[in-house]
Specification:
- The chain has about 400 residues and is mainly alpha-helical.
- Helices cover about 65% and strands about 5% of the residues.
- The protein contains 15 helices and 3 strands.
- It has a 3-stranded antiparallel β-sheet with strand order 1-2-3, with no helix packed on it.
- The protein starts with 15 loop residues before the first helix and ends in an 11-residue tail after the last helix.
Length: about 400
């Protein structure tokens, strides 16, 4: 007697790459929870009498972000293209709220709004909206992206509008990251390389002009060029944070002083739980702990690069490329700032630094990445067949 099997539609499971991406993300979030608690406890105790208030808030945002990541991972990939324009319009509208009575300045930048007693940074959510919108435009234009007119319109003016709303709040660090994200999405989406080079040169010139236009940015850059040390003229001012970040790394050595045993978090290092949390990681966990953290970001990038290289969908490659540049690029910018290789930009370490907006928005972007990876699983093509697919021919220079 022959058994008859009735085929039922099966849900697509997460691929091995998607499982690794989700696991690495959760590991980084867990590391961030521990390090934020350690880095913030002393100053928080002195300021409020409660050493755990920042850590509790960070845990709450982490739980919300991880839940959101898994919810978004279940959404069909087609949804993101249908909502691309709405997401971008919502992101820009939210960013414009910083110039209303809801907005307020922090650290010299007006890039925050107050909602329900919480400070929200709209530009973090605008990053994800911008990536999805650019990917949608690239996918819609297809081979037309090889012509400069289509490479420029509407990406340059619309993306420029989004970046301009952030620049009005004087947050140059966020603008630079957003610019890199946009260029990353364009590159991985198949835009011609010489168009990318022209955009990079133009953007770099504009950023340099803004940075040297005066104010604290110019003085920070001047101090960075002069070099910081304990004997420099700017030690007590512009170089304080950089020098004490170095001191933290030096005190950690190879194996670290031990979790919770940082000296620099006792009021010596500003933003110890935020922009300079990597220095506390190096001090408490040593070079070994710092390298492990960096290795997780490298693995994050390797996984997304693998998926991008196997996909024949421009929307998928552009979206994943933008997310790759966002997370990995921002991580290495943060580390470069702590090491003194770049001037202080006020850029947090993704998924580790304290900050609810950054944490939730990045985990949401990873949820989008998982959604796209779930949708493309099982639709891979042999490498010799990909060249016949529009948008998968070799990149033309």
């Amino acid at each position: 007697m022959t058994a008859t099997r009735i085929g039922l539609p099966q849900r697509r499971r997460l691929s091995r790459d998607a499982i690794v991406l989700a696991s690495v993300s959760i590991a980084l979030v867990a590391c961030g929870v521990v390090m934020v608690l350690s880095a913030s406890s002393v100053e928080n105790l002195i300021a409020t009498g409660d050493p755990f208030s920042i850590a509790r808030r960070h845990v709450a945002f982490a739980l919300v972000g991880v839940a959101l990541m898994f919810v978004l991972s279940r959404i069909p990939p087609a949804f993101w293209r249908r909502c691309a324009w709405a997401l971008l319009a919502s992101g820009i509208a939210l960013q414009l709220l910083v110039f209303t009575p809801l907005g307020f300045a922090s650290g010299g930048n007006r890039n925050w709004i107050s909602l329900g007693g919480f400070g929200v940074q709209p530009s973090e959510f605008l990053k994800l909206a911008l990536i999805i919108w650019i990917a949608h435009i690239i996918a819609a234009k297809g081979e037309l992206m090889s012509r400069w007119q289509h490479a420029v319109i509407p990406i340059v003016p619309v993306a420029g509008l989004g970046l301009g709303t952030v620049m009005l709040g004087k947050d140059l660090g966020t603008v630079l990251i957003m610019g890199a994200i946009a260029l990353g999405a364009c590159f991985f989406g198949g835009m011609r390389l010489h168009h990318i080079v022209i955009a990079v040169v133009t953007a770099a010139g504009a950023a340099l002009a803004v940075a040297l236009s005066g104010g604290t940015r110019q003085t920070r850059i001047a101090a960075w060029f002069e070099g910081c040390s304990a004997t420099s003229d700017n030690y007590l001012d512009l170089c304080w944070q950089t020098v004490h970040g170095w001191n933290a790394l030096a005190l950690g050595g190879v194996t670290g002083a031990g979790l919770g045993n940082s000296q620099m978090k006792w009021g010596w290092l500003p933003e110890a739980n935020n922009d300079f949390i990597f220095a506390i990681i190096g001090e408490e966990l040593g070079a070994i702990g710092a390298v492990v953290v960096l290795a997780q970001f490298v693995l994050f990038g390797v996984v997304l690069t693998r998926v991008i290289s196997r996909s024949h969908d421009r929307f998928v490659t552009a979206t994943l490329g933008g997310i790759l540049l966002w997370v990995v690029g921002q991580a290495f910018v943060n580390v470069a700032v702590v090491l003194g290789m770049l001037p202080v930009l006020g850029v947090p370490l993704p998924m580790i630094s304290a900050g609810g907006s950054s944490l939730v928005s990045i985990l949401a972007s990873i949820g989008v990445a998982l959604s796209l990876m779930r949708g493309t699983e099982g639709s891979r093509m042999p490498s010799d067949a990909r060249a016949a697919v529009p948008g998968h021919a070799g990149r033309r220079v």
